[in-house]
């Protein structure tokens, strides 16, 4: 393969002299992270005007399907801020890389082989419509979602829909098991559009939903009658991650880009879009509770991942009843 | 079949046939066939004889969620098809046969429901009829009426009927306009009442195009994801399960398996329709070039106007909500927006021009390709008898039945590497569009050719014209209305094509649907609505011009 030998030569070159970094050529970024990704791409473009960078913007599902289909001749170089569950499900698509930013990351947000690096933290919280519910009625814990008073007042995304949606179910299961989960299922309408969850609560179709905190914060800033409730029994610490696509057309620029995406500067851009950074030295977005104060519980994402098929099969079975 | 004519060797049919077969095999049969075969392979693997498994299908036998989704899909598909046909046929008759003003405008407006920006189109029904929706709130305030929930079967079927009836409407309208008026006049002369003529002459003639349209409605209804996702509540359909497999499990093989079940349902419907169609063979387009007289009675004109405009108003509601939303600078969950203005348009302007240009170019090229190959294959399929005709039918319908993302992945895998590498080019998007839409032209041409008197072509051949000349001078002008209706539908639906594009687009060839999608990803719904509104407006202008210009030259062809 021509590209591979080129890549090899380039890698050897880089090893021989750290300063010989390509600052021209192209770069293709797969961006499922919306505005956060767009800001990072713009920041990189400003820093390296010689590199012509282009982005493919789509959802995590579409981009990972695309990467799998392109495996024999990858068209993208980097994937930016996709949910960690997606990486765990597609382990062989990415290239390990020692980023100089590595020391600034906690080890639990970087892959053991350094094939992906944490980006933002899509914490799941309750979104409550403040017009439809008074404060004393707000659910405060995952267990509260199972209360009979919430019947018909709860909208959730079907856990088969995405990594985030499954994480919600997995958190309830790890905290309380199927007993509570079953009661939550009885209360909730499981939609198949993750947009619908917060849109429905924001527009007053439903009282309560569970979604990523960024969606709630964005709506609050726009003046929607909603508020964010962090479950007191703890939300799981999840993260999004970025990685270099193995065999991509511009491996040197990909490294340059990942270094930038891992930098403090880029993580501050992420924060400016209401997302929480995984870097400890970057403050959370204004108006969001500091990460250290958010009640968390030791969410085991490996356990969640290994039980996934079994849990979802059981969910489907209960759902159909 | 007429006796074979032994005259000078004519290579035109063979060239046309050869090219068509190449296109069908290279772009349709091979990529999609291999992807379909993969549904018999475990997740992430390519099919070979050794790893063959039925694992991906097992849930249809074991999971009641799958079985329920299958039943929902069939129920919704049948309901939407029947209802869409039932509302479309009277409208088509009125537009074709009653004197009502603004016909080109009516035809163009009827296309607009086909451009439904993803998510916001379906969500418009929630904005109007949801629990806190505008209409629901006012009905409640003024009359104390509590609207039933819009979620579930009712909302899904309503929104799908109104966004899909156009297929039947356009096809039937085209056919009724082209029907030989002698048939009706003879019936009238022989003393049949108007009602009897309508029942025994006119409506039966509308059946082939009606079935062609109904087939498309059925397939669209079977494959629809957006409306059930937003309005279905917990009513899941097969496309929901496919979405789970792709987005939640990254398992394309399992998604293909579900798609294959969808294909089987459609195959059953195709066979059923072909049987129904076989029993009815009419020659309706003869040598006359005169159009049927329009009814001018006052009563029928009032009824026709009310019906047609009422239907259009309902069908255009979601689009009106989209346009309205685009002017809302702030709409934070209140009944009405709290601030109006052009801000969204200023914001999206720089993001619109290039994608719109790209969409227009890609859609136009793909439409031309569909017209050429769709007409050829449709003509051959209807006029010639050959072995494996049903296979041709199915091959052309296959990518149309399959969800766009499956077709997109099939092309991506096939043309990503190897001798023909097309990823990142405009060509691969055009091919994707072509294979997904050729069925529209094919179906409408088959329906149109059924109605043409074979004698007219024979007369041309006997007079010494070659096959090519006969096609050009006789056949194509006669089926032109059918082709035009198909072409307009193809072009319009391609402008907002999303699910194949998202697999195949590159930064250079970003389309308008991707631009909308990007704004939705960043929660900028009003900005997405602004791009959607621009798309609707541009498409409306283009289609209106096309119907006027081509429509005029078409009526000249007939005079």
TrEMBL record, chain A:
Protein's name according to its UniProt entry: Extracellular solute-binding protein
Region Disordered, annotated ranges: 281-300
Keyword Signal on entry: yes
Pfam families per the UniProt record, alphabetical: SBP_bac_6
Organism: Devosia oryzisoli
TM stretches of this protein: none
Signal sequence region: 1-22
SUPFAM superfamilies: Periplasmic binding protein-like II
Keywords: Signal
Record keyword Signal present: yes
TrEMBL record, chain B:
Transmembrane segments: 12-32, 69-93, 105-130, 150-176, 197-219, 252-274, 306-328, 360-380, 392-413, 419-435, 478-505, 525-546
Domain ABC transmembrane type-1 as annotated: residue spans: 70-273, 356-546
Cellular localisation: Cell inner membrane; Cell membrane
Record keywords, A-Z: Cell inner membrane, Cell membrane, Membrane, Transmembrane, Transmembrane helix, Transport
An example Gene Ontology CC term for this record: plasma membrane
Keyword Protease (UniProt): no
Main location: membrane
Membrane topology label: Multi-pass membrane protein
Keyword GTP-binding attached: no
Pfam families named among the record's database cross-references: BPD_transp_1
GO biological process, one term: transmembrane transport
CDD domains, sorted: TM_PBP2 (cd06261)
Family matches, as PANTHER family: INNER MEMBRANE ABC TRANSPORTER PERMEASE PROTEIN YDCV (PTHR43357)
Family statement drawn from the similarity comment of this UniProt entry: Belongs to the binding-protein-dependent transport system permease family.
Name listed for the protein in its UniProt record: Iron ABC transporter permease
Biological classification of the source: Bacteria, Pseudomonadati, Pseudomonadota, Alphaproteobacteria, Hyphomicrobiales
């Amino acid at each position: 393969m021509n590209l591979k030998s080129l890549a090899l030569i380039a890698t050897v070159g880089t090893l021989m002299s750290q300063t010989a970094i390509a600052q021209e050529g192209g770069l293709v970024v797969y961006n499922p992270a919306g505005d956060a990704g767009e800001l990072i791409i713009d920041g990189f473009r400003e820093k390296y005007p010689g590199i012509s960078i282009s982005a493919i913007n789509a959802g995590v599902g579409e981009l990972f399907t695309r990467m799998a289909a392109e495996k024999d001749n990858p068209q993208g170089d980097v994937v930016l801020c996709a949910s960690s569950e997606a990486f765990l499900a597609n382990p062989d698509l990415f290239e390990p890389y020692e980023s100089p930013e590595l020391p600034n990351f906690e080890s639990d947000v970087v892959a053991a082989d350094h094939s992906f690096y944490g980006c933002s933290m899509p914490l799941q919280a309750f979104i409550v419509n403040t017009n439809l519910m008074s404060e004393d009625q707000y659910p405060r814990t995952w267990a509260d979602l199972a209360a009979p008073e919430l019947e018909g007042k709860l909208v959730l995304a079907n856990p088969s829909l995405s990594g985030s949606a499954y994480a919600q179910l997995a958190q309830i299961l790890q905290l309380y098991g199927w007993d509570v989960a079953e009661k939550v299922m009885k209360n909730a309408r499981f939609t198949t559009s993750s947009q619908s969850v917060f849109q429905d609560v924001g527009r007053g179709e439903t009282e309560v939903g569970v979604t990523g905190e960024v969606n709630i914060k964005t709506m609050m800033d726009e003046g929607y009658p909603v508020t964010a409730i962090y479950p007191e029994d703890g939300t799981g610490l999840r993260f999004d991650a970025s990685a270099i696509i193995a065999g991509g057309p511009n491996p040197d620029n990909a490294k340059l880009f990942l270094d930038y995406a891992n930098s403090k500067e880029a993580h501050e851009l992420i924060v400016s879009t209401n997302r929480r950074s995984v870097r400890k030295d970057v403050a959370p977005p204004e108006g969001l509770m500091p990460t250290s104060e958010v009640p968390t519980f030791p969410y085991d994402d490996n356990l969640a991942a290994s039980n996934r098929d079994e849990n979802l099969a059981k969910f489907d079975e209960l759902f159909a009843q | 079949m007429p006796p074979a004519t032994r005259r000078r060797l004519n290579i035109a049919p063979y060239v046309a046939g050869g090219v068509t077969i190449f296109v069908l095999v290279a772009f349709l049969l091979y990529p999609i066939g291999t992807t379909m075969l993969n549904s018999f392979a475990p997740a992430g693997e390519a099919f070979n004889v050794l790893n063959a498994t039925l694992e991906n299908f097992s849930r249809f036998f074991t999971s009641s969620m799958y079985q329920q989704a299958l039943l929902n899909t069939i129920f919704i598909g049948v309901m939407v098809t029947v209802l869409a046909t039932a509302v479309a046929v009277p409208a088509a008759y009125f537009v074709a046969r009653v004197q009502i003003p603004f016909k080109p405008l009516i035809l163009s407006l009827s296309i607009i429901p086909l451009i439904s920006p993803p998510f916001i189109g379906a969500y418009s029904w929630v904005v109007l009829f949801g629990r806190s929706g505008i209409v629901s709130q006012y009905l409640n305030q003024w009359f104390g009426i509590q609207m039933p929930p819009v979620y579930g079967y009712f909302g899904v079927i309503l929104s799908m009927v109104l966004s899909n009836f156009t297929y039947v409407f356009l096809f039937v309208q085209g056919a009724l306009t082209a029907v030989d008026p002698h048939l009706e006049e003879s019936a009238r002369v022989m003393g049949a009442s108007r009602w009897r003529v309508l029942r025994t002459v006119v409506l039966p003639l509308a059946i082939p195009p009606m079935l062609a349209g109904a087939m498309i409605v059925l397939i669209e209804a079977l494959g629809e994801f957006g409306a059930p996702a937003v309005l279905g509540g917990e009513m899941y359909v097969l496309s929901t399960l496919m979405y789970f497999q792709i987005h939640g499990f990254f398992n394309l093989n399992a998604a293909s398996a579900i798609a294959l079940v969808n294909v089987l349902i459609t195959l059953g419907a195709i066979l059923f329709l072909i049987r129904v169609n076989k029993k009815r063979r009419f020659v309706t387009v003869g040598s006359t070039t005169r159009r049927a007289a329009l009814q001018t009675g006052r009563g029928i004109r009032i009824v026709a106007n009310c019906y047609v405009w009422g239907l259009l108003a309902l069908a255009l509601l979601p689009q009106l909500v989209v346009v309205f939303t685009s002017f809302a600078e702030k709409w934070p969950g209140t009944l009405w927006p709290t601030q109006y203005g052009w801000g969204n348009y200023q914001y999206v302007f720089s993001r619109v021009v290039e994608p719109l240009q790209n969409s227009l170019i890609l859609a136009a090229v793909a439409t031309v390709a569909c017209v050429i190959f769709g007409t050829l294959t449709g003509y051959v399929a209807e006029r010639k008898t050959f072995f494996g005709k049903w296979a041709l039918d199915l091959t052309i319908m296959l990518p149309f039945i399959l969800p766009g993302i499956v077709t997109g992945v099939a092309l991506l895998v096939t043309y990503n590497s190897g001798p023909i590498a097309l990823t990142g080019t405009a060509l691969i998007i055009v091919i994707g569009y072509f294979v997904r839409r050729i069925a529209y032209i094919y179906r409408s041409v088959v329906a149109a050719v059924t109605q043409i008197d074979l004698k007219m072509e024979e007369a041309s051949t006997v007079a010494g014209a070659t096959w090519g000349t006969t096609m050009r001078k006789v056949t194509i002008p006669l089926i032109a209305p059918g082709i035009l209706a198909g072409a307009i539908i193809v072009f319009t639906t391609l402008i907002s094509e999303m699910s194949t594009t998202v697999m195949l687009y590159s930064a250079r060839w970003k389309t308008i649907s991707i631009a909308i999608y990007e704004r939705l990803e960043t929660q900028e719904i009003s900005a997405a609505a602004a791009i959607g509104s621009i798309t609707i407006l541009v498409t409306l202008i283009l289609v209106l011009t096309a119907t006027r210009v081509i429509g005029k030259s078409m009526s000249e062809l007939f005079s």
